[in-house]
Amino acid sequence: MTASENTGFNTRAVHAGQTPDSSTGSVIPPLYQTTTFAQDGIGKLRNGYEYGRGTNPTRDALQSQLAALEGGKFAFSFASGLAAEDALIRALLVPGDHILMGNDVYGGTYRLINRVLSVWGISNAAVDMNDADALASAIAAGGPEGATKMIWVETPSNPMMKITDIAAVAQAAHAVGAVLVVDNTFASPYLANPLALGADVVVHSTTKYIGGHSDASGGAIVLNDAAAAEKVGFVQFAVGAVSAPMEAWLTTRGLKTLGVRMDRHCANAQSIAEWLLARTEVERVLYPGLVDHPGHELAARQMRGFGGMISVQFKGGESAARTVAESTHLFTLAESLGGVESLMNYPSEMTHASVKGTELAVPVNLIRLSVGIEDVTDLIEDLDQAISSL
Ligand SMILES: *Cc1c(COP(=O)(O)O)cnc(C)c1O
């Protein structure tokens, strides 16, 4: 049996793109820490390998694994999530085109689209993706120079944990010939596969759950359309924001255990979210696994679990949120998410400082938890001592 489409997720995670090295039998495909490849004559390449920016076997192994796990035909690996997003937009759009994004996308995505790509001539607008009427009129309105060509959804969103109906937005996008891009970073391919729900492109910050160990930055694009894939491949090669061999190798290693890690992230986060709900200091717990979360039923339909991310708002406002953020011992105060260790983040001054004062601004009484795979009783004890200090 090979790691075909018919095998289960964990089998594909371990085997896809991971054939033992043909010359030595090395069970783990080697780390090809090289920038160039010897030619057997001018233009006579061995297995097509020529120059590291173009192709590298370690990156190829990761790309095969990513395609197999997202259920896509083509995958491309980049130096960061934002490098992948930038390459995707430049590959598929031209100046004058318009992007419509969710009004709660990751701050860095907003900054890239609104401050870097706008200068390049791509206009944008933000809308509540859960409001079908607002979405329809925003799509129809388009931009100052051109029609809506790309719709950008993040679900669950960072850090407001909103759930967007991928199939419904795909239908709205396709009705006007726009492509739907889904940032699947929070769910990871283990919990959701947006391509199967009608999305045209999936993007990831592999820095997060896919890598899973907070030791390798990266980004990915996965898609099925061959013509679009050729354009993405060209930008990847021509601009060169590729993942370095070491980063690709570490990401490949991390990805093999995504399923077992995610199961624990989900179980720990569910317990912590329920525990937080019962605290009198807490105003609101944003976690799609809670039955009172507005996206709970939708998440149950389009995801296979609710993930490891929780946002919490405190009755005591900004000072309470800041105090808790600075009082934990096991939860480390740091940006990023999705690693085996639990992290604490105060988005309005940290990960989402770039959207301060915009319509995407994050409430100042909110903290975001990336729940790790530690023993949940220890994590709850840590949160208990931090919240009890209020
Ligand atoms: C971190 C993140 C990104 C950006 O990825 P980098 O690897 O930091 O460039 C994009 N989307 C989401 C949802 C993220 O959490």
Describe the secondary structure blueprint for this structure.
Layout: H1 9-15, H2 57-70, E1 74-78, H3 81-92, E2 98-102, H4 107-116, E3 123-127, H5 132-141, E4 148-154, H6 166-175, E5 179-183, H7 188-191, E6 201-205, E7 219-223, H8 226-239, H9 245-255, H10 258-277, E8 282-286, H11 296-302, E9 309-314, H12 317-325, E10 332-333, E11 343-345, E12 366-370, H13 376-388
Parallel strand pairs: 2-3, 2-4, 4-5, 5-6, 10-11
Antiparallel strand pairs: 1-7, 6-7, 8-9, 9-12, 11-12
Bound molecules: pyridoxal-5'-phosphate.
Folded structure, characterized:
- The protein is of the alpha/beta class and 390 residues long.
- It has two domains: 9-256, Type I PLP-dependent aspartate aminotransferase-like (Major domain) (Aspartate Aminotransferase, domain 2), CATH 3.40.640.10; 259-387, Aspartate Aminotransferase, domain 1, CATH 3.90.1150.
- 36% of the residues lie in helices and 15% in strands.
- The protein has 13 helices and twelve strands.
- The strands form two sheets. It has a seven-stranded mixed sheet with strand order 1-7-6-5-4-2-3, sandwiched between helices.
- Strand 5, helix 7 (188-191) and strand 6 form a beta-alpha-beta unit.
- Helix 2 packs parallel to helix 9 and helix 3 (81-92) packs across helix 8 (226-239).
- It is globular and about 75 Å long.
- The termini are far apart.
- The mean pLDDT is 96.
- Residues 80-82, 106, 108-109, 154, 158, 183, 185-186, 205, 207-208, 217, 219 line the site of pyridoxal-5'-phosphate.
